[in-house]
Amino acid sequence: MDAHLPTDDARRDPRLTVVVAAFDEADALPLLQPRIAAVLDALAHDAGIVGRVLYIDDGSRDATWQVLQRLAAQDPRIALLRLSRNFGKEAALTAGLDHIESGAAMILDADGQDPPELIPQFVAKWREGFDDVHGTRMAREGESLAKRATAHMFYRVIGRLSRTPIPADTGDFRLLSPRALSALRQLRERNRFMKGLFGWVGFRQASIPYQRQARAAGGSKFNFWKLWNLAIEGITGFSTAPLRVATYVGLATALLAFLYGAWIVVKAMLWGDPVAGWPTMMAVILFLGGMQLIALGTLGEYLGRLYEEAKQRPLYLVDAWRPAAGVSSAQP
Ligand code: UDP
Ligand code: MG
Asked: How high is the ipTM of this complex?
């Protein structure tokens, strides 16, 4: 095991930080925080857990930051982080995880779709010795059939394509043990498909089935186009299968072309060669042109990501950091 990772002893660490990324969630946060606070109170009492909450304002345009500051003034366990602009959920979560000083991390959505009341179950699994406890959605309320169907398909496709195990129907609702957390923090790639990164880390995994509830307030921040891009990000980040497909399609085409060429020669020798075949020629040219562009586009997807990676820009920029009261303000 990597020498930088804390050993199993770290699992006895009683600290747990609930990490919530919020983008335009001013309506949902006042509903969520009391639920988290109640759970943390119970955990402190029953299991001796030292709970904290870390909210990341991912460049919200509404009153999210003001709401968060109000909440933080009422509860000394709350830490706040604001990014310089909207970097997206994956970067916001990364920022949050980077700012946890010690202990385990519990990731939740701000909209209440991942019920905080389940946190004690996650903690129990962590105490049993699991490093990555993730919630698996048994049902999704308040989401369209199209969204459920495409999500279902996506998890199946990526499960087939990627060599990294990515559990199906599992989002970011999960608890990471201290060593899983510090392992994850070593992955600094720009292509941040968190579900895949969690899977890459490995260690002992446990899954907790749950009913995904409807949003408490506001609307989903992900439209079809954003999800489509996230899916491409996931596939290109965790599989080179599309490149291999291009190779095989090329091989198959070359083989067919060879057979077809041989047939043309034979035909010309047997029956002569009157000029004909414009339709075949057009069909072949267009087909090959299309295939080449698809292969080039696939190559471009990977090359573009390589370019992003090569620039080595930071994953996010911090605008404001307000540690929980009574906690040292040292940044990790
Ligand atoms: N989110 C974020 N940055 C973004 C988009 C979303 O931090 O650019 C947060 C959002 O506030 C919420 C979580 O990510 O806490 C999940 O977003 P949402 O509920 O819109 O996604 P869905 O549940 O519809 O997949
Ligand atoms: Mg949601």
From this structure: 0.92
